[in-house]
Amino acid sequence: MDAERLYAIVLDLHQEMTRTNTVVKLQELINALTQVINQPHPSHQQELSLNLLAMYTALTNTTSDEFSPLCRQILKEMGGEAFFGKALKAKIETIFTMNQITPVLALQELQQLLNEIKLFNTALDQFSSSFNHFKIGEEKLSPGEFEIGILIPRAAVQNRLINFSGELNELGAILAPFAEVATGNRDDLVMSTLSSSALPVHLQASAPLATFVAVSINRVVALYKNYVEIRKLHQEIREQGVPDQNVSGIENYANEIMEKGIDKIATEMVHEYYRKDNKYLKSELTKSVRISLNKIANRIDRGFNIEVRVAAITKPEELENNQALLKAIETIQAATSSTQFLKLDGRPLLRLPEAYDPPPKKKE
Q: How many C-beta neighbours within 10 Å does residue 90 have?
């Protein structure tokens, strides 16, 4: 991962840890539980409940829970995924649920968790101080600046440079028709950053292209969520020893659902965003967009993540004279907020067509 992007994430995490007062609240929770263990008085039990509620409230609607898939991947690589937001709340809930009869064990687990969080918070603080000392800036998008991010699993390119290069070419081919529909031109896609740790690629994008990609991805992921349960069921059936040829019908059914759904999405997207009055080109672009969406769905099925980033609107009045830009930002934020990171079980099943046969030439 690049240093400036990592620094921005570290700052967000450090600010969240400070804003939620996680260390102090967790220590207060431990103190309250200790009192209950030593003196199980009703007032002490009530204090424990109040501290538990305060802890859960602080961990609700946190910044980290709104992280993009790429940022969450970086947080996971940092080893801090369990120390923030919903994940930390779930961990504390599990500790109390599993140790209702043995509160002493719950106390031990909470103390261990607190020690781990303290170490992580100290590391965040030291990291921020060091980067500030060396005058390394944080990577932040400005209002009106858009970025497309793609996380390529290493397994998808087998850690081979030539495969990675080929995948970059393929991603360019995927996004080219999107650019033509959204902007009228097949814009050159400029890389803003490229990392070597988890193979994320970040591309500069215009507002129309970023909007088109964000909405397209949102609709494909929404469609794909219907397929996730089928994929999980397929894996469970295979684990029961059912031969592959006997479950092929499930694969065919899933692919048929996705292909029909993507065909509809492609038609809708071109109808909504293509502005030129050229029926033939519109038809050809619809075919190209459908193939690109098929490629995206196939890659999502293999563990890719594609996102669009845009800076939060802190002062809408500064953009009031640019309604198109304001609408683009709002559309992207709405689309990305409902595009969840997908946890996939089982092996990939999609094999949607990634090319289409042009119509045969008429005989003269």
A: 12
Could you tell me which of 137, 135, 171 has the C-alpha nearest to residue 151? 171
Q: 3-state class of 194 per DSSP?
A: strand
Cα–Cα separations (whole angstroms), residue 152 to 80, 84, 189: 21, 25, 17
* Residue found under tokens 């902007």: 183
| Percent composition of the chain: helix, strand, coil (DSSP 3-state, to 5) | 65, 5, 25
Strands 305-310 and 200-205: unpaired
CB 207 within 8 A of CB 144: yes
Instruction: Give the count of beta carbons closer than 10 Å to the beta carbon of residue 27.
Output: 16
| Measured distance CA(358)–CA(94) in Å, rounded | 57
pLDDT in tens, 260-280: 999 999 999 999 999 899 999
Report in angstroms the alpha-carbon separations of 126 from 10, 15, 29, 91, 264.
10, 13, 26, 26, 51
State the Cα–Cα distance between residues 173 and 103, nearest whole angstrom: 58
Half-sphere exposure of 5 (CA within 13 A, CB side): 21
Check pLDDT > 70 for residue 227. Answer: yes
202: DSSP letter: E
Cα four-point dihedral sign 20, 24, 25, 30: positive
d(CA 241, CA 50): 50
Provide the pLDDT for residue 356. Answer: 72
Length of the chain, please? 364
CA distance 322 to 313: 13
CA–CA separation, 187 and 210 (whole Å): 12
pLDDT confidence tier of residue 239, bands split at 50, 70 and 90: confident
pLDDT tens, position by position, 81-115:
999 999 999 999 999 999 988 999 999 999 999 99
The pLDDT, as a whole number, for residue 363 is: 54
Most confident of 112-116, 165-169, 226-230, 328-332: 112-116
CA distance 215 to 80: 30
Q: Measure the CA–CA gap between 87 and 64, rounded to whole angstroms.
A: 10
